[in-house]
Amino acid sequence: MITFNEAKKASQAIVRNMNPLSVILFGSVAREGQGRDLDFLIVTDESSADTETRDLLLHRCLKRHLRKTAVDSSFITPILWQQYHTEGSPFLNLVAREGRSLYMRNAVQEWLKQAEGE
User: Fold this and answer.
1) 100 - beta bridge partners?
2) Does pTM surpass 0.70?
3) How many Å apart are CA 28 and CA 88, to the nearest integer?
4) Nearest-CA neighbor of 102 among 41, 17, 34?
């Protein structure tokens, strides 16, 4: 079983190596504090590398966590997040409902920007 604290350590490795906009944990570890795998939604900016390079980088930075457990990750840009959220994406609704934000770059500025938009 993998714990929430181990998920936070994995998130820190993602932040150090990939410089995302945010990292959101969802799934059993987010809901119950432990589980058999890690589920991450990683928000990246538009200048991020192509899918193959990004997946390889993620695998390298989580290598020690992958030995213990499976890591399922999805990547999304803020523009796609907004579009899919507006369209009522079941996946994003799930992440919004049960997800736990482990990292957000410029969190206060992003919150203020969202508040202005609403």
Assistant:
1) 25
2) yes
3) 22
4) 41
SS3 category, 35: strand
**SS3 of residue 41 by DSSP:** strand
Structure tokens given for 72 = 């399922």
Overall size of the chain counted in residues: 118
Secondary element (H or E) of residue 77:
none
Coil, strand or helix at 27: coil
pLDDT digits (tens, 9 = 90+) for 43-87: 998 655 577 788 888 888 888 767 777 888 999 998 899 899 999
C-beta atoms surrounding 13 within 10 Å: 16
Contact by Cβ (8 Å): 20, 43: yes
